[in-house]
TrEMBL record:
Coiled coil: none annotated. Residues 85-269 form the PBP domain. Residues 5-51 form the Helix-turn-helix domain. Gene3D superfamilies: Periplasmic binding protein-like II (3.40.190.10). This is Helix-turn-helix transcriptional regulator. Transmembrane segments: none annotated. It comes from the Bacteria. It comes from Brotonthovivens ammoniilytica. It holds the Pfam family PBP_like.
Length: 293
């Protein structure tokens, strides 16, 4: 793993916390940082060590799987049970777009994504080809899941379709840049010729599906978009389906010649992993582990 230096903002994105929280962690001595002029820089390996997921002598023996879905935690756990040499897998909570970017920058990363391309009406492959130019890649299907509208129980604003986000009486809770949901929202606006400035709450950001649903439940907005599973975790939220999305995994073909990455594929194609994913409400596991590219 290389000695990449991160800004406090980048660390905040990795840890899914506010930037000020990172500064507090540095001040308390919980997180190592170097001051360069007036700016702090944090070594990526120190972030990993703070999370307790690597040891100093294991730095070159880790596989970073980017994504926010909880099924990736099960994947990492099943892989780590195999005790493949000194390798360990762990999840970085980066969204789809940012995960592909990190994979392009770093050799030890695997990306997962659910990025809808409005022009072709397909998921992931157009983004994989654009964001990792010149790379020889394999794409494996994980699951399909419904994404849709989060509204308060009883749907007091009678929000039933994407176009309702443009109404004057509707306030959106948006998602962060780089997330699959944010890409979907922006692609829908582009296709419909809708200026994002016409959407109330467009800059009202939530960093996860769960936070978005909770903000709608608390009245910080009238509607958000997220996956069906999360809507069932927040009391007082109703889910209105919009589109079934494909959630896939991207691995370099050169890595598939190496045992640790072969074992990652072995896990996602296993009956145990299928049953784990199948137990998550709202997931369609048909073709789980199938190679798409």
């Amino acid at each position: 793993m290389d000695e990449r230096l991160l800004t406090p903002v980048e660390v905040a994105e990795m840890l899914q916390v506010k930037k000020n929280t990172v500064y507090e962690m540095i001040k308390r001595g919980d997180l190592k940082a170097t001051k360069m002029g007036k700016q702090f820089r944090i070594a990526q390996k120190d972030v990993y060590q703070y999370l307790g997921i690597i040891k100093q002598d294991e730095e070159n023996c880790n596989i970073v799987i980017c994504g926010q879905d909880i099924m990736l935690d099960a994947l990492c756990a099943m892989f780590n049970e195999m005790k493949i040499k000194n390798y360990r897998a762990y999840r970085s909570p980066l969204g789809s777009y940012n995960g592909l970017y990190e994979m392009y920058q770093h050799e030890d990363h695997i990306a997962t994504c659910h990025l809808w391309d409005g022009k072709s009406n397909t998921y992931n492959l157009p983004y994989v080809e654009r964001m990792l130019p010149g790379e020889q890649l394999a794409v494996f299907h994980l699951i399909k899941r419904w994404q849709g509208l989060y509204v308060k129980k009883g749907n007091p604003k009678n929000i039933t379709k994407f176009e309702d986000l443009m109404r004057d009486d509707v306030v959106l809770v948006n998602r962060e840049k780089g997330s699959g949901i944010r890409v979907f929202i922006d692609e829908m606006c582009k296709l419909g010729g809708i200026p994002t400035s016409s959407i109330k709450g467009y800059k009202n950001i939530a960093e996860s599906h769960l936070i978005a649903a909770s903000m709608v439940q608390r009245g910080s907005g009238d509607v958000s978009i997220g996956n069906e599973k999360t809507s069932k975790q927040v009391e007082g939220i109703e889910f209105i389906p919009l589109k079934e999305e494909s959630y896939d995994m991207v691995i370099r073909t050169s890595d598939l010649e190496r045992e640790p990455y072969q074992k990652i594929v072995e896990v996602i194609q296993s009956e145990r992993f299928r049953k784990e994913a199948e137990s998550i409400d709202g997931y369609n596991v048909t073709n789980i582990g199938k190679r798409l590219l």
